[in-house]
Amino acid sequence: MTTANTPVLHPDLTSAQRDCLDSLPLTGNHVVSGQPGSGKSLLAAHRAVHLSLTGRPTFLISRSNLLRQLLRGTLQGLTVPGAPVDAATGHTWIHRHFGHDAPRAEDGWFDWTELTRRAAATLGEDDGATPHLVIDEGQDLPQGFYRLVRLAAASVTVFADECQRLTETNSTLAEITDALGRSTARVEITGNHRNTREIVSLAEHFRTGGSRPAIPLRSGALPVVRHYAAVKDLADDIATMAGRQPRQRIGVIVNRLPTAADLMRRLERAGLAHEPQLYSSAASSGRYRDLDLARPGVVLVHRASAKGLDFDTVVIADAESDSADDPTSATLRMAYYVMITRARERLVLAWQGSRLPRHLEGLEGWVRTR
User: How confident is the model at residue 7, as a pLDDT?
Assistant: First the structure.
């Protein structure tokens, strides 16, 4: 079995990304941190391909099913014949490894203590089948998961950014490292290859914790804070954006599911060049569960499923839904930090009502108001 680094050249990586990838041995546990736009998801896919060449089963894991779909698409262009990588959610991998009767906990996850006991009991029994695990957006998985995979995996590589922790069962970089063991190596990938400097500057207003990220050199339009009298006006504006840029991807991020359903109905009647897509975590299969995130057009997603995604244009559709929240709340600020940094080129923060939401006040100089 190969244990040294395997030189697989991928021309779509920057020199910094390639250096990061090449610095990771094919053994041991590693935590790779980086700001939004640094290429963590792309590196996670490349890392999984590298590890698959050792001959062990290799899984690329995320918490979000929508991110899993995106990662699966990325892997299709990278996987080496004879060395497949399986993209899976954390829940799916647990069921595959421990069976569908794996004991559950009240928080919707699993009984980590019992699963860790089972993993310890079978440690070393079938070493060749022990998998490599690569985890994207690893801050969204609980500490119990990492204490488990420390025993259940041959190696664990985690890509994470603790400034993007949106779930109730999340972990800091220090907690992930501690759960994986003292020998876990820490690596940081720098740079932002997604956003414009205007978008990053606005995101900085909402960032909580962490070191100040690099500001991109690429410049673009100022983000827009826009008032809409009704959902109809918002839908009309989104349809106009899609008509002007038919080859681009527009991500509409919502907080309220009724808003998403209303927008979807209106956009379906708008005669767009590409049929709009809506993701629902409640759907078990079909058009609202399995999306084509690579094609142009409008995609509507709840903010809980937006992490790891990116779009040419992002519309945060119902900012007024946060009006009652404390604008200094770390949870609220982190949510907007994540949503804002999904945008590659253009960003619209949309709101309805009679008063500008408090968390959108004081943004003069960072945004245009319409």
Answer: 42
- pLDDT digit string, tens, across residues 275-301: 999 999 888 889 999 999 999 999 999
Who contacts 275 (Cβ-Cβ below 8 Å, separation ≥6)?
268, 297
- What pLDDT, in 10s, does the model give residues 243-278? 999 999 999 999 999 999 999 999 999 999 999 999
The residues, any chain, with a CB within 8 Å of residue 23's CB and separated by 6 or more, are 187
- How many angstroms separate the CA atoms of 308 and 200, rounded? 16
Cβ atoms of 67 and 40 closer than 8 Å:
no
Q: Pinpoint the alpha helices (H) of the chain.
A: 15-22, 40-52, 65-76, 90-98, 112-121, 143-152, 173-180, 197-206, 231-244, 257-268, 330-340
User: Which domains are assigned to the chain?
Assistant: 15-189 (3.40.50.300), 197-369 (3.40.50.300)
Q: SS in 3 state form for 36-65?
A: CCCCHHHHHHHHHHHHHCCCCCEEEEECCH
> What confidence category does residue 167 fall into, taking pLDDT thresholds of 50, 70 and 90?
low
